[in-house]
């Protein structure tokens, strides 16, 4: 028997929900698991020290915890992150190996997952100088046993090196977050999110702490701390539902996780209870993810600005001919639109802008961000909530700005996420709140309903989205792997969906249809396409769009599933089938092209199967492409 035998089972005992199945006092349970782990690891150290063939000295070697254990956030099934650290002098290589084996093997035998390392102090410093995850892990190290002073001195040295290198390593840290975003997506908008790795997840909380430790920015508190604790509760419940160390909230785990978090309404019939609790769970996770995401973005923004403001604004030789009489130069703002400026790599409000009197200002800010690729400053976002936004009687400028925003392509999801954090889209379209954060009932969907629609629109973008004044665009991007760009003139005029440049009204209708195609996915609705076609004209007329645009967008919303349904369930060689499809788009060949583009963008935004998650190739397969093209060709033949 070793000191850690049965430790895994004891973690689960400490993590058990209450008698009614609800997981309460998650923070207390995490403290209890941490205390138990530290106690058992100290006892294991004593056992290992007694079993060695040599005397383990009191100084020069020790056991340290990093990761969730050092932060006091260990989950019911979390792995243990441990480092055996030595000074490189008191023990030789064989003695260090013997001691390490006496520590690691009992932990493996107990069934615990272990992430372990053996390093000298110099090796710790060298690794953390070049390995970002190792560096952020050592910023919150905790001595377990042995020479605590050695561990604390090493941690202090690494922290000092981290602060000295902050200017150089900040881009690396920010790039790592961006790479993770591309890999794992945004926590608020995924149907099966990874609550650790997704943007807005627990990994971002580690980066916030690392930024604060660098002294480049203060750590947020208040609502942020509450969100972190609740997100840890979600992680704990995923462990309990899965029975293993995982951070992926799969569909199969969601009913149990929702119930453990107290979201299951006991007054509802059992069949309805699970569905309603999952909706509530995903809404809660979206709120938590937005809070963490915004805290990270705000902290990163302040860190970037501190680098600029701490940098001297004049050179040595300017002492003799100072441009600003020895004072720091005033900040510069590059005004790019009424009330909007570029400043230090961000989109901000221009000096003198008055949000309280400008309803179009949020749209101008969003377009500037989407077309430039620069983020909106967090303080600017908060100030935009003061704008008198409305859902009706938009003027021509506001309608044109919305179309420019929707045509921004790959930048649109990030811009929309930032606007959504402060509630802007719901003020433009109150109907948006009915689908915001809602998971899709279809297992094929990767994203929540609202994010799915934004992803679809982003795949309809043409280049940088700026109009050339003739209904075209100043740059054309391929929106789907290897496919010709939306609205481009192909070499083969028979190519579906790409036969001509759409004029301004048709392109606007296509983008608006993408934005609203799933707006009808509401609780209790059986035919969301028909329901969406009922809402779309109301929204668009309220905004002041012309009847031609309203009619085309409404038709596309109503028929957005038609091409897929025909392609997978009807015979393309039957002339009657092609004629029926043509009738569904009013026998308008350009509307048929637009339907193909919308169908392809819709299909490209799916992707929740295990194969798609592994390959990262989502939705629009070559098989889907070929079947859709065959059905499109059948409809085109009927129009000849």
UniProtKB/TrEMBL annotation:
The keyword DNA repair does not apply. CDD domains: NT_GlnE_GlnD_like. The keyword ATP-binding does not apply. Keywords: Hydrolase, Magnesium, Multifunctional enzyme, Nucleotidyltransferase, Transferase. Residues 175-288 form the PII-uridylyltransferase/Glutamine-synthetase adenylyltransferase domain. Pfam families: GlnD_UR_UTase. InterPro entries: NT_sf, PII_UdlTrfase/GS_AdlTrfase, UTase/UR. Its EC number is 2.7.7.59. GO terms for molecular function: [protein-PII] uridylyltransferase activity; hydrolase activity. This is Protein-pII.
């Amino acid at each position: 028997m070793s000191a850690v035998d049965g430790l895994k089972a004891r973690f689960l005992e400490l993590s058990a929900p209450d008698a009614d199945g609800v997981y309460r006092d998650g923070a207390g349970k995490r403290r209890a698991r941490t205390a138990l782990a530290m106690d058992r690891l100290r006892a294991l150290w004593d056992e290992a020290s007694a079993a060695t063939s040599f005397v383990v000295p009191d100084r020069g070697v020790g056991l340290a915890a990093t990761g969730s254990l050092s932060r006091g956030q260990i989950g019911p099934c979390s792995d243990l992150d441990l480092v055996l650290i030595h000074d490189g002098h008191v023990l030789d290589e064989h003695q260090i190996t013997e001691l390490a084996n006496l520590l690691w093997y009992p932990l493996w035998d107990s069934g615990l997952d272990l992430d372990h390392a053996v390093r000298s102090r110099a090796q710790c410093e060298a690794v953390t100088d070049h390995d970002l995850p190792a560096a952020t892990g050592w910023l919150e190290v905790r001595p377990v046993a042995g020479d605590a002073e050695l561990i604390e001195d090493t941690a202090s040295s690494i922290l000092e090196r981290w602060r000295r290198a902050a200017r150089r390593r900040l881009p690396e840290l920010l790039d790592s977050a961006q790479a993770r975003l591309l890999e794992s997506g945004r926590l608020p908008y995924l149907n099966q999110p990874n609550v650790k790795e997704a943007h807005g997840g627990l990994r971002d909380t580690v980066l916030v702490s690392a930024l604060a430790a660098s002294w480049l920015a203060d750590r947020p508190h208040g609502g942020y701390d509450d969100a972190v604790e609740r997100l840890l509760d979600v992680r704990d419940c995923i462990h309990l539902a899965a029975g293993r160390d995982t951070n992926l909230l799969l569909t199969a785990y969601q009913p149990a996780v929702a119930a453990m978090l107290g979201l299951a309404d006991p007054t509802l019939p059992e069949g309805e209870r699970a569905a309603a609790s999952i909706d509530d769970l995903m809404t809660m996770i979206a709120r938590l993810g937005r809070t963490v995401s915004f805290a990270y973005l705000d902290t990163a923004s302040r860190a970037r600005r501190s680098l600029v403001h701490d940098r001297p604004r004049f050179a040595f030789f300017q002492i003799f001919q100072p441009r600003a009489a020895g004072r720091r130069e005033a900040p510069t703002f590059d005004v790019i639109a009424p009330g909007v400026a570029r400043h230090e790599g961000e989109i901000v409000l221009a000096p003198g802008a008055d949000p309280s009197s400008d309803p179009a200002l949020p749209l101008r800010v969003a377009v500037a961000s989407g077309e430039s690729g620069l983020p909106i400053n967090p303080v600017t976002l908060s100030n935009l909530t003061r704008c008198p936004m409305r859902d009706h009687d938009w003027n021509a400028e506001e309608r044109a700005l919305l179309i420019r925003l929707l045509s921004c392509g790959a930048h649109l999801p990030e811009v929309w996420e930032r606007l959504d954090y402060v509630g802007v889209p719901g003020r433009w379209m109150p109907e948006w709140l009915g689908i915001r954060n809602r998971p899709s009932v279809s297992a094929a969907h990767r994203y929540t309903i609202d994010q799915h629609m934004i992803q679809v629109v982003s795949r309809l973008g043409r280049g940088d989205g700026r109009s050339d004044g003739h209904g075209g665009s100043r740059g054309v991007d391929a929106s789907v792997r290897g496919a010709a760009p939306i609205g481009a003139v192909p070499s083969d005029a028979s190519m579906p969906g790409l036969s001509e440049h759409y004029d301004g009204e048709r392109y606007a209708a296509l983008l608006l249809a993408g934005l609203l195609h799933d707006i009808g996915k509401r609780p209790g609705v059986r035919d969301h396409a028909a329901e969406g076609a009922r809402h779309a004209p109301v929204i668009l007329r309220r905004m002041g769009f012309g009847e031609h645009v309203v009619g085309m967008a409404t038709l596309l919303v109503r028929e957005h599933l038609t091409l897929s349904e025909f392609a997978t369930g009807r015979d393309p060689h039957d002339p009657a089938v092609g004629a029926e499809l043509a009738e569904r788009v009013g026998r308008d060949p350009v509307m048929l092209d637009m339907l193909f583009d919308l169908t392809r963008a819709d299909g490209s935004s799916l992707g929740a199967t295990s194969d798609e998650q592994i390959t990262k190739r989502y939705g629009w397969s070559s098989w889907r492409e070929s079947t859709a093209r065959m059905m499109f060709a059948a409809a085109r033949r009927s129009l000849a």
